[in-house]
Structures are given as structure tokens and as C-alpha cells.
């Protein structure tokens, strides 16, 4: 089907900052189908989004993209998407490109090329199924549902096909830009890592602070730094990935404390066990050069006998030392006549346990010291 080109306009060109331009120039390249921009607050993400959506509309017409493949801006909720971007999308798309007036109810624009641009919320993502996608801009990516991407958006990008007229090159697959401020180490962190050197071949990612965006003066950032919690400041203004789950261990650093080592055949195993009913957990260590390395785990285990069975199956051929908490000397939740510790000993494990647990403060300080000295 022949797709009509959009009329030329004489609007002034969009002026991007250098950091925004770094992200923009990689758009619609095969080696950067999936772009991730992790940015501090007021970086200018929305302004960049206007330029991205406008370009997507033009390329869809020029490259003969099927009108079944739409162009979307998505945010965590429809209310947020409409408030943040609907007015800006109408500003970005010239009236000469539009086939009709924008649909204010659905927040959609039909172009003269036949393509449809939409502003959508990703909270009720099951309702979004149906069309294909040529381009999707996902805003506040860290706050969006991963399932919306994995179950809906990613498959919708898979069927798009088009041809670059200048070269005659045929391409398959739509494009995405996921952008936002980080929130811990969730899927935003994972997709950012995919775009770094050594990651996925069709991903590219950037990390920019608010200061690098050029929209927030240094004096304002200094004022915010003085008043805000350091972790929150690093996350919101410096686009840092901060671990808010488990902040008791303040010296933990995901990069410094990381290891890619694996358990070796026959190596002595040391397992720390936390007793519970239906939700037992354990961390598996080996000791090398005097340092413990956490290399495996068990979680959501039913009870002590179930934990014993799982350890035996996974670590057959290893000597196993178990370090339970002192509460295991009480009767087991599985068998009121027998303690958890006696069950572990009967299983043939070496059980290392004190008569009582050390003080909470002492435990925290010991772990923080080990993290600091890794």
C-alpha cells in the first residue's frame, strides 16, 4: 500500500542540547533499536520527546511503514500521560500534517499519511493490544509496569516492516526510547545495562545528570543537595541507581560487591539459614582467600525438611556447613518433638550456631564492615 508523504513545513528546527542530541542522533538505527536514557529531573526529557515523536511521524510516511503500525507516547498512567504530553504532542505535529482535528477523548492524532499517534497509559496495558507499533516513547520508565513492556509493547514492535528509500534496505522491527529517572535497581537498571558496552547488540543507553541537561542552574542543585537526603538527591538529580531496599547496610555497593565467580565441584559450602514457616530462606557461600563469596540462594522454601532436601539435591558431593539462627533450637514448625537444629544435624550437615543470636547492632556493623572491605 502506498503511503502519502507529509507536506514539508517551514517551522524552525527543534534545538536540542548537546546531551539530548546524543540520544536523538542514535534514533532509528539498527544498532540502537532500543534506547534507554536515564536522566536527572528537569533534564528536558519531555522536550526531547516532542522531537522524537515528530521525527517518527515523518519517517513513518517516508519509509512506507504500514498504517497499522502506530506511534505512541506511554506513561505509567493515562492521566499522567495526558497531563504531561498530550498538549505537547499537539504542539509538535503541524496542522498541515493532520488528516483531521485531534481526538481529545482518545488523545490521538490521525496523520495525512494514515498513521495514528496516541498518548496512552501503561497501567491497563491489556487494553492496548491490537495494533502494531513503529515507535514507542516510554516516559518515567522506572515507574512503568515491566509486564506492559514484556507482554504488550515488545510484541507489538515485532511485526513492523519498512524499506529505507535512499538505500533500498528492508528492515524489520519497530523502535523504542525508554526514558526517565531511576528508582532503585528495577527493570530500568536492567535495560540500561543492556545498552552499555558488552550488553545487547541492538540496545544503547545513556546516563545524564540534571546539571548536564543544562536546564537547572548549579546554584539550585547546591541548594537541593544541602536539604535533601543524599540517596534521594543522587537518584533524582544525578540519575543514580540507589538501593532503597535494605538501606540498613549502607556500605553495600552493587559494583564493588559484585562477583562473577561460580561454585566449583566438590568445594566446601557454607549456608546461612533463616527459619520461617513457608518462607524459609538461605544464602550459599564459599570461602576463598579468607573471604566469603555469596554465590547461590534458596528462597520461599516450605520448611526445614524441604530445605534439607533441596540442599542435598543441589549440593551433592559437597561438604555442607550450616549457620542457622539460634531460634532453630526451639521445636520445629514441622515436628513439635524435634528442633530444626537436630534435623539439620541428622541430615549430615555441620551445624555452627551460638547459644543466642548476637545483638542487632553488632550484626549490622559486622556486615557493613565486610562490605566496606571487599
TrEMBL record:
Q: Which segments constitute the Terminase large subunit gp17-like C-terminal domain? A: 271-371
Q: What keywords is this UniProt entry annotated with?
A: Viral release from host cell
Q: Write down the superkingdom of origin.
A: Bacteria
Q: Which InterPro entries match?
A: P-loop_NTPase, Terminase_6C
Q: What is this protein called?
A: Terminase
**Which organism was this protein described from?**
Pseudomonas putida S12
Amino acid at each position: 500500500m502506498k503511503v502519502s508523504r507529509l507536506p514539508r513545513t517551514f517551522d524552525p528546527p527543534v534545538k536540542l542540547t548537546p546531551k539530548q542530541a546524543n540520544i536523538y542522533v542514535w534514533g532509528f538505527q539498527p544498532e540502537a533499536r532500543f534506547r534507554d536514557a536515564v536522566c536527572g529531573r528537569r533534564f528536558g526529557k519531555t522536550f526531547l520527546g516532542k522531537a522524537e515523536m515528530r521525527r517518527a511521524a515523518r519517517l513513518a510516511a517516508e519509509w512506507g511503514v504500514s498504517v497499522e503500525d502506530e506511534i505512541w507516547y506511554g506513561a505509567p498512567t493515562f492521566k499522567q500521560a495526558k497531563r504531561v504530553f498530550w498538549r505537547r504532542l499537539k504542539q509538535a505535529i503541524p496542522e498541515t500534517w493532520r488528516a483531521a482535528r485531534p481526538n481529545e477523548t482518545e488523545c490521538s492524532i490521525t496523520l495525512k499519511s494514515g498513521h495514528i499517534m496516541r498518548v496512552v497509559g501503561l497501567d491497563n496495558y491489556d487494553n492496548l493490544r491490537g495494533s502494531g507499533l513503529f515507535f514507542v516513547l516510554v516516559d518515567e520508565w522506572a515507574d512503568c509496569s515491566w509486564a506492559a513492556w514484556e507482554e504488550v509493547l515488545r510484541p507489538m514492535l515485532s511485526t513492523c516492516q519498512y524499506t529505507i528509500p535512499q538505500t533500498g534496505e528492508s528492515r524489520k522491527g519497530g523502535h523504542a526510547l525508554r526514558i526517565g529517572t531511576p528508582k532503585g535497581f528495577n527493570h530500568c537498571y536492567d535495560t540500561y545495562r543492556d545498552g552499555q558496552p558488552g550488553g545487547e547488540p541492538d540496545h544503547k543507553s545513556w546516563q545524564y545528570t540534571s546539571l548536564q541537561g543544562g536546564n537547572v542552574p548549579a546554584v539550585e542543585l547546591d541548594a537541593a543537595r544541602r536539604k535533601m537526603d543524599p540517596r534521594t538527591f543522587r537518584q533524582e538529580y544525578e540519575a543514580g541507581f540507589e538501593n532503597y531496599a535494605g538501606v540498613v547496610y549502607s556500605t553495600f555497593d552493587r559494583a564493588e560487591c559484585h562477583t562473577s565467580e561460580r561454585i566449583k565441584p566438590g568445594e566446601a559450602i557454607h549456608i546461612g539459614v533463616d527459619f520461617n514457616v513457608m518462607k524459609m530462606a538461605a544464602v550459599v557461600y564459599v570461602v576463598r582467600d579468607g573471604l566469603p563469596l555469596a554465590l547461590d540462594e534458596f528462597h520461599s522454601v516450605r520448611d526445614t525438611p524441604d530445605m534439607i532436601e533441596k540442599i542435598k539435591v543441589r549440593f551433592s558431593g559437597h561438604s555442607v556447613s550450616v549457620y542457622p539462627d539460634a531460634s532453630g533450637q526451639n521445636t520445629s514448625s514441622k515436628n513439635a518433638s524435634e528442633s530444626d537444629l537436630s534435623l539439620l544435624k541428622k541430615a549430615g550437615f555441620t551445624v555452627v550456631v551460638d547459644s543466642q543470636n548476637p545483638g542487632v547492632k553488632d550484626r549490622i556493623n559486622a556486615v557493613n564492615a565486610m562490605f566496606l572491605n571487599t
